[in-house]
Design brief:
Arc Repressor Mutant, subunit A, 65% helix, 130 residues, 3-stranded antiparallel β-sheet, transcription regulation, mainly alpha, DNA-binding
Length: 130
């Protein structure tokens, strides 16, 4: 086992399909919202600035299919739907919190690296083409 905790070689075939379901921005954000309390569709849409109706609908269906979210039809007029995170979905809370904290701690460093890269590409782009 390596010092970072990953066993090499990585089993990409086994993990890639799983990571494709949980490692996208909307999944992380939706589950982060639902970790605090159940929410209706429109509440989620309001809280997730920038998500389209279609993207939220598709993400919720995918999360429900994967057992990370449950959907409950409410006996209201008009009929309402509430989404709740499942125990399996809650098990992602710790890794998502670590990723969130890493993002806060390292966001400025990423931006600095991006600016340095962009500057070097602009200044050195001609030399690389020759």
């Amino acid at each position: 086992m390596s010092k970072d905790g990953l066993t090499l070689p990585l089993d990409v075939a086994a993990t890639r399909p799983i990571l494709e379901h949980i490692a996208n921005k909307w999944t992380v954000l939706i589950l982060s919202v639902l970790c605090t309390q159940p929410a209706r569709f429109n509440d989620l849409k309001r809280r997730l600035d920038g998500i389209t109706h279609k993207a939220l609908s598709e993400a919720l269906k995918r999360l429900e299919r994967n057992g990370l979210v449950s959907r409950k039809v409410l006996p209201t007029q008009p009929v309402g739907v509430e989404y709740t995170i499942t125990d399996l979905g809650c098990s992602l809370r710790e890794p998502f919190a670590a990723l969130y904290n890493w993002s806060l701690a390292n966001g400025a460093a990423l931006e600095t690296a991006q600016r340095a890269y962009d500057t070097s590409r602009k200044n050195g782009g001609l030399a690389e083409q020759i």
